[in-house]
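User: Fold this; tokens only.

Assistant: Input:
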Amino acid sequence: MKYLSISVILIFSLSTYANPKTEVLLIYGDSISAGYGMSKEKQWSLILQEKINKENLKIKVINSSISGETTSGGLARLSQTIKSIKPDYLLLELGGNDALRGYPPRQIASNIAEMIKIADSASTKVLLMQIRIP
């Protein structure tokens, strides 16, 4: 979590200083990002927003994660989510539930690639959170 926070803050600090508007980071993941079973103060998305605020960066974090989400489910709802939120950045954290359910890695990769295309077509920059699938 420490390295993710530092990386996200560094990425955004460069663009934030050049751009005075508040940018939107959409977190789009599964239970890890939704904070399933955790108290609010321990959820990484809220900790990230606190760190961003502390650095006085103009970034609003919106968490649209759903516990149990798969890449197929994420793909099915992404276009509408991007249309309604209009994020500048999309942080994808999906694939773990696909692996738990035994979905083929090629299908997981295909779904993620499609989500990246959807974001690109909306001029939304994509950040991927790595999920290692044995």
